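Progress note, project year one: complex with iron/sulfur cluster.
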Amino acid sequence: MNERPDRNNLIKQLEDARFSCEMCAECCVGPDNEVIVSPDEVEALSRASGLSFDEIAEPYPEWFEENGERFTFSWVLRRREDGRCMFLEQSRCRYYASRPHLCRTYPFMLNQGNLLISECPALGKSATKDAGNLADALILRQDADDSEFEATRREYQKHSIVSGKTLVIDSRGAHLLKE
Ligand code: SF4
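Model obtained:
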């Protein structure tokens, strides 16, 4: 489990970053826009959009091979051919209320309780909006990521090896991919 950050200290760091989202949608486009999602997050988007799990997510593209089995962990949101997230409409998320943790907290994330900041054109410009809510969203994301990681690890340890097959292993089990 990751260390929990001190909330007040986190708020102070977020305020120092002077970030207020400009809705430019830079984080929803391009080759680096890989939104890693848990099954719970895919389901939330599925409820909002009416699309199936497979229509929303594809396997995380880092593959491992062991005992003739090919597998990966977790899922990423599908993108259009031009690299834009499938849910981006002009510069707005179509399912903003159901967007994943990563989207809610970009350009920030916690690692071992430390704040990491990714590139974003809105950084350093104006007073951070809702730093308290952002801090809570980051802590919630870290907790959700920790639970997903632990449950995925357990599922990996207990799954039966299926030689010659391709699997996605997540917190809910080992899912055989259709060939
Ligand atoms: S789910 Fe919404 S906020 Fe997240 S990358 Fe896609 S369009 Fe952007």
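The chain is about 30% helix and 20% strand.
The longest helix spans residues 131-158.
No further modelling is planned for this target in the current period.
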